[in-house]
Amino acid sequence: MNTNRYPKALETIQTPFYYYDTDLLRRTLACIKSYESSYEGFCVHYAIKANANPKLLKIIQEYGLGVDCVSGGEIQASIDAGFDPSKIVFAGVAKSDWEIELGLAHNILCFNVESIPELEVINQIATDKNKTANVCLRINPEVGAHTHTNIATGRAEDKFGISMEDMEKVIHLTQTLSNIHFMGLHFHIGSQILDMSDFEALCRRINDLQDQLEQQNVKIEIINVGGGLGVDYDSPESNDMADFESYFNTYHRLLRLRQGQSLHFELGRAVVAQCGSLITKTLYVKEGNQRKFVMVDAGMTDLIRPALYQAHHKIVNISSEAETTDTYDVVGPICESSDVFDTDVTLPTTRRGDLIAILSAGAYGEAMASRYNCRPFAKGYTSDDLC
Ligand SMILES: *Cc1c(COP(=O)(O)O)cnc(C)c1O
Description:
The chain is an alpha/beta fold. The chain folds into 2 domains: 8-17 and 274-382, Lyase, Ornithine Decarboxylase, Chain A, domain 1; 22-272, Alanine racemase (TIM Barrel, Alpha-Beta Barrel), CATH 3.20.20.10. Helix content is 31%, strand content 24%. The chain has helices at residues 22-38, 54-62, 72-80, 97-105, 116-128, 151-156, 164-176, 196-215, 244-254, 269-272, 305-309, 383-386, and strands spanning 17-20, 42-47, 66-69, 88-90, 110-113, 133-140, 162-163, 180-186, 222-224, 262-267, 276-287, 292-296, 315-317, 325-331, 340-348, 355-358, 379-382. The strands form 2 sheets. Strands 1, 11, 12, 13, 14, 15, 16 and 17 form an 8-stranded mixed β-sheet that branches. Helix 3 (72-80) runs parallel beside helix 4, helix 4 packs across helix 5 and helix 8 (196-215) packs parallel to helix 9 (244-254). It starts with 16 loop residues before the first strand and ends with a helix. Bound molecules: pyridoxal-5'-phosphate. Pyridoxal-5'-phosphate binds at residues 47, 49-50, 68, 70, 91, 188, 191, 226-229, 266-270.
């Protein structure tokens, strides 16, 4: 057992389960906070959709981050975890009436609005409740990760946000709506971005848009640049921290903030991915004619990223002391041929009962779990629980 990384107590817990290293989470949050406090106007929100485990939320809340929510359920989870509603922003392409009402009832910081019909409904509901809704408009900046894919997704992303051409028109519309207060602009260019040039392009685009709006005397209080900073899924053990330095420096260097403006970030993956592992037990080792399979008790119901996005996660055998290695396909027990964690993985010679850790599972793991095949949800334990 690699007891440097994993406490011995793990061996006694029913598998599969998520294991969260809270020291790493705290180091990550401290690093984020140090950049946030050294650059004036910077304000970091946690994109709660990455992982809403209450134990992690409590720690994230203690570090004073705001929250980015994309549903009413996430607003409620944030409130329950003790986040200050005045630090909650609410995005999402299609907000239900009850979700808008919940946001208004808690006086959240702002709604990130993605279309004119949505703006009108928020105004109507705010009027009925005798409230004013703060809004940022989500603008599609046509830079970054999304534009690297084909034209078909370029059209599909129209589902998200307002086009740059329509921006001024929609801002002027906000000024005619009695119970809407326009606060600024929101962007989000994609996820798992490691190439800073995508963020650089976003900064330049925002500078241009700000220049344009300044000529119209539009006042902008908040610029929200979304999330998307990637992590190292290939070598998470040697590189357990996202490149916050380059990320925040890029915005500091390139984005021209005006006096009194605040720059909001919405990081999900970069906050929680590396602190989480999915711990699973080897049930069988099956030798086919061509391939050997390590069949484990976790499946795509516990971590769907490999099946859904062909995502790669590092897999390690944490209990074997075997000196020999072998090459395996690591597969789950679900009745789906896509229930494969990875193929051609080199592991110490693996036996029934060996514990396997699937690394970098803190983001979009537990949060995307399902009960397909009537499987129970895997529980989440933290290093604080186990020592
Ligand atoms: C998903 C999402 C995020 C977080 O993305 P990460 O890649 O996990 O940092 C931030 N903002 C919005 C609007 C999102 O939809």
